[in-house]
């Protein structure tokens, strides 16, 4: 387990004094704090990041700029955040993939390259198809894969947690599926709607709007219980399949950021994540809320890295 580095010099910013990290002048962000999102605009990670950034502007007292730096299943964004100056001027949104991709040789970035600030979310995967498809249950998809008649799954990227969710389901049922990686959940969902792929395994929250509009149909949730906003969608366990998989999201800074700066960011982002505006957004969007503070989040990311090193594609741990 890693230990935090003590600051050798005073932090460049003191949030409590009303001077946000923008005072240190993040590069390319016009003095505002840059928040790096490792996936495309429109997906669940992007949506929650932008809402959290808006809430943080009020609780932290600085302006924010959200930058989507997608590619390589999240690796490009993780690398950009890890390589930023460790002064609080650049934050990164981290997901389960930061604990996975290095094990697959996609990147050298691991949780050791980031210091956790706050975890704010956990969401299970959901197997979702176009509402007009011939698939009415998860077993229909499994049977199609078993006879080689389809089952192409759109994911949020090669080596992503949503790909791991699909591969785990296939392995559990002993079938072969085809995986089509996209740069985030939003384009994967679009591919299902456009008939480019048969299904996707992104979170239920990310497909909620299309399910409620009747465009998509979620066949099963890969969590321990049904989602409140998808009450008619069974869990895999209810369907006789023992597989659970999901993602988590949080805020992190480059490793080596002064401890005092991390503590100040933890305080104001914790307040932002618990604000009425943000919690209301999460509830309405169907995003699961799960809080972990800086130290606990660090330990959790380390445990996830070890876990994925052993399983190479197993489910995330809530």
Q: What is the helical fraction, as a range of percent?
A: 25-40%
Query: Hey, roughly how much beta strand do the residues contain?
Result: 15-25%
Which parts are unreliable, with pLDDT below 50 for 5 consecutive residues or more? 3-20, 22-30, 313-318
Given this structure, which CATH class of the largest domain is correct? Alpha Beta
Order of helices and strands: EHEHEEEHEHEHEHEEHHEH
> Mean pLDDT, as a whole number?
88
Q: How are the strands of the largest sheet arranged?
A: 2-1-3-10-4-11
Quaternary arrangement of the chains shown? Answer: single chain
Please give the domain count: 2
Summing up helix and strand content along with how strands pair, one would put the structural category as alpha/beta
Please tally the β strands and state the result: 11
Q: If you compute it from the alpha carbons, what radius of gyration comes out, rounded to the nearest whole angstrom?
A: 19 Å
CATH topology of the largest domain: D-Maltodextrin-Binding Protein, domain 2
* Annotated CATH homologous superfamily of the largest domain: Bordetella uptake gene, domain 1
Overall outline: globular
> What's the number of helices?
9
Largest sheet, strands/sense/barrel = 6 strands, mixed
CATH-scheme architecture of the largest domain:
3-Layer(aba) Sandwich
Distance between the termini: 19 Å
Protein name: Tripartite-type tricarboxylate transporter receptor subunit TctC
Signal peptide: 1-22
InterPro entries: BUG, Bug_dom1
Pfam family, one: TctC
